């Protein structure tokens, strides 16, 4: 038994370098959310596996007894907690961030990319077959992310043949030799009916004059956002320099795809011999010719070494054949519901969402960045909408309300009451929760009504609250909100206070939201207006609730990072 534990522990530590057979065993025991086979363990062995998972913080395993002589079967693999060890994200573009068949990137995923770029803990980079300019331009046109944000990231481009650091400096590149270019172009011309060839020299894309108007060539710019293809004087085979890669392109129709399928084995055979190149494919109508022993996976390895990171510290997200090496090397790795069968076989996880449903962003949230669903304890939908507006720019968090029948706690310390209330709510919900306690305090009445304003308002109304201050010179008041947050049962409660000074006046403006109409703000741009006379955006800038949630927002951003 001891030797089994040593073996399992060693297998975990060595997994980035394990052979494919070991990797399959590791996937079965440690990573896969999908059931891959029926493996049975006796009680002692199962106990050892469970203890090992617990000690390594790898998540939970669910096992049940089967009718096979007291053996147990692991029926649900753990949802591995990889967030804590992931330090980088490598993400493909076409078919991953940009849905298949679309020109525009998925907005949900790009919002998560922006969050990843801002993270102090993570390094985000694109790993794509596109040029750097083409990849960035194709993402920027969605309007969800800026060129400046993406230019500040390192990257793996042209299927790993060009790797740049965060300053945009090339730290690694590989090129085809001239003989390989000539051999691949000649084979395509003789055996590839209706196919065009383009050559990539960094950000420059060239083709023979005869291919300039080919529909596959024009779509590189129009559909995929690559730099416009230019004519290569003298022809690709006689180009003075050399190319990083060649792209063989067909029209996007049945005949074009059939021509690509027919040419590929011929190019592969040539590459194994005199051609000295290899082939990969991301799209049905395109074949990529690259130098030997290169690929996107190799480019990712180069960049991770530059960042002093290992494969098991990088989340990879991809969708196609050209991503397979990257998906196999990195751990964790994710592919999407609409990805290729080969990519799904290599990835650690297959997301339920497709590329057009935010699948790439969801993968980054779950396996690198973290994602929170926080319940707001209230039955008041107006409050929920106001909180969502206040927290709209906090990425990686969603808010929903839940109505709980919590005991009405009494006491003079509003902060302690808020803490206790939040603890009770977290215990009942069993997850992250926020509570809110609001007070309206009259200076002349020694802070009454305070936290009991709800009952005073119900009994007295706006006019009655005003009459409470008749006979006093001081009609000053302050509004206070205490937001309490608890991550779950047994966790510490964090408290965030907001306070706004003002005066009590006869009702003005909307009377739909509590006592807003009688509280005239005495601060900032809202001075002289009641809350009831302000729109939501204006009120959020000066209100006690806005101030409290601003502090909570700052806390959440630091926690998620």
Structural class: alpha/beta
Separation of termini? 41 Å
Summed over residues and divided by their number, the pLDDT gives a mean of: 84
Major pleated sheet: 8 strands, mixed
Helix content: 25-40%
Strand content: 15-25%
Q: Give the neighbour order of strands across the main sheet.
A: 8-7-6-5-4-15-16-17
How many distinct helices?
18
Q: How many strands? A: 24
- Categorize the overall geometry: elongated
CA-atom Rg in angstroms: 30 Å
In terms of per-residue confidence, which ranges show pLDDT below 50 for 5 or more consecutive residues?
A: 1-38, 53-69, 72-81
Catalytic activity: dITP + H2O = dIMP + diphosphate + H(+); N(6)-hydroxy-dATP + H2O = N(6)-hydroxy-dAMP + diphosphate + H(+); ITP + H2O = IMP + diphosphate + H(+); XTP + H2O = XMP + diphosphate + H(+)
Cofactor: Mg(2+); Mn(2+)
Binding site for Mg(2+): 408, 437
Family: Belongs to the HAM1 NTPase family.
Description of the structure:
- The protein has 561 residues and is of the alpha/beta class.
- Helix content is 37%, strand content 21%.
- The chain is built from 18 helices and 24 strands.
- It has an 8-stranded mixed beta sheet, with helices on both faces.
- Helix 1 runs parallel beside helix 3 (43-55), helix 7 packs antiparallel against helix 9 (254-275) and helix 17 crosses helix 18 (544-560).
- The longest helix has 22 residues, at 254-275.
- The radius of gyration is 30 Å and the shape is elongated.
- Residues 1-38, 53-69 and 72-81 have low confidence and may be disordered.
- Residues 1-16 form the signal peptide.
- It catalyses: dITP + H2O = dIMP + diphosphate + H(+); N(6)-hydroxy-dATP + H2O = N(6)-hydroxy-dAMP + diphosphate + H(+); ITP + H2O = IMP + diphosphate + H(+); XTP + H2O = XMP + diphosphate + H(+).
- It holds the Pfam family Ham1p_like.
